[in-house]
Amino acid sequence: MRLYLASTSPARLSVLRGAGIEPVCFAPDVDEEAEVAAREAELGRALTAPELTEHLGRLKAEDVVRRHGPDGTGEIDGLVLGGDSMFLLDDEILGKPHRPEVALARSKQHRGRTGVLHSGHWLIDCTAGATRAAAGAVDTATVTLASDLADAELEAYVATGEPLELAGGFAIDGLAGAFIERIEGAPSCVIGLSLPALRRLVIELGHEYPGLWRD
């Protein structure tokens, strides 16, 4: 069974490869801001962070299926996975910091405290030349940074550039691994794709998870 990843995220690709899965990657083309605004207008309220992650994951997966699935180029024969992640501290969504000064301020804010990471997933079954079914799930984990981190350590980390394009501004599988004191939940969820959630979705759609493992 082939898995198609509606993402070009190196972190998500790394998680899957580490789990014995070699996906085919497609870059989704989604106007996230406009789509979220439309969904919130439809609901008459703001989406929660878990709802946002699943909704964006769904949009990404559906876009890839529309362009490359049975009614598109026909390249896809397997399962299509879309995902999105959001990190919250004090109920505030902290996206990618992009700038060093923002990354440093956020890391100091997070120091000695616990944040929440939501990882949304949407899986579409596109096997045997048809779009058959879809299912979604959100997994959640908490991340606590060490309280004794010195400003110099945080400054050195930000200077590497690693946290600038990461939701929450840290990577547990990278240089910040030594700064993270505790994780509650699936470690893969914190990286951006929950393997336990993926397994449950694969089973929900009637397939066997080991079928995704590369030969």
What does this entry look like structurally?
The structure is a single chain. With 215 residues, the chain is α/β, with parallel strands linked by helices. Helix content is 35%, strand content 24%. Strand 5 and strand 6 (133-145) form a beta hairpin. The protein is globular, with a radius of gyration of 18 Å. It comes from Leucobacter alluvii.
User: Biggest β-sheet, characterized?
Assistant: 7 strands, mixed
- How do the helices and strands follow one another from N- to C-terminus? EHEHHEEHEEHEHH
Using only CA atoms, what is the Rg?
Answer: 18 Å
Which percent range describes the beta-strand content? 15-25%
**Structural class determined from secondary elements:** alpha/beta
How would you summarize what this structure contains?
The chain has helices at residues 10-18, 32-43, 49-68, 100-110, 151-159, 187-191, 195-204, and strands at 2-5, 24-25, 78-89, 92-94, 114-126, 133-145, 180-184. The protein is an alpha/beta fold and 215 residues long. Strands 1, 2, 3, 4, 5, 6 and 7 form a 7-stranded mixed beta sheet that branches.
